[in-house]
Amino acid sequence: xxxxxxxxxxxxxxxxxxxxxxxxxxxxxxxxxxxxxxxxxxxxxxxxxxxxxxxxxxxxxxxxxxxxxxxxxxxxxxxxxxxxxxxxxxxxxxxxxxxxxxxxxxxxxxxxxxxxxxxxxxxxxxxxxxxxxxxxxxxxxxxxxx
Length: 146
Known about the structure:
Elements: E1 32-36, E2 40-43, H1 44-57, E3 63-66, E4 72-76, E5 89-97, E6 102-107, H2 111-122, E7 129-133, E8 137-138, E9 144-145
C-alpha cells in the first residue's frame, strides 16, 4: 500500500483541474512502459491495484518502476452532513495525471509477458492508456538490446 506524503506545508489543498500535456512521455528506466493518454486523477488505490496486477502477471520476475506519486489530498464531507462548518477531512490522495504521463515501467522480462502485464494494469486505471516500447529496443528479437 502506498504511503501518504511525509510532510506537507498544508494538510488540505484546492481541487485540481488536470489539463495539458505531460513534460516527459518517454521510457527512461525500463524497456517497456504504460502511458496514460488522457488527463485524469489517479488515486493511490488505483495505482496500487495496477501495480499488484502487473507484479502478479510478471510472476515476480523483472523490475517495475512507479513513475508517479499521489501527493494531492482530496477532502470529503461525511454523508448526511449539512453544508458549511468548514472543509471536510482528507479522505484519499491523488496524482493529477496529464495526457502522456508515463505511469509504470518494466524491465527484465520478454515483450509478450510485459505486454500482458501492462494490459492487466491498464484495466485497473480510469483512463485510456497504451503500451510503449523504449526507443532503440530491437522488437524483432523479443525485446533484447541492440
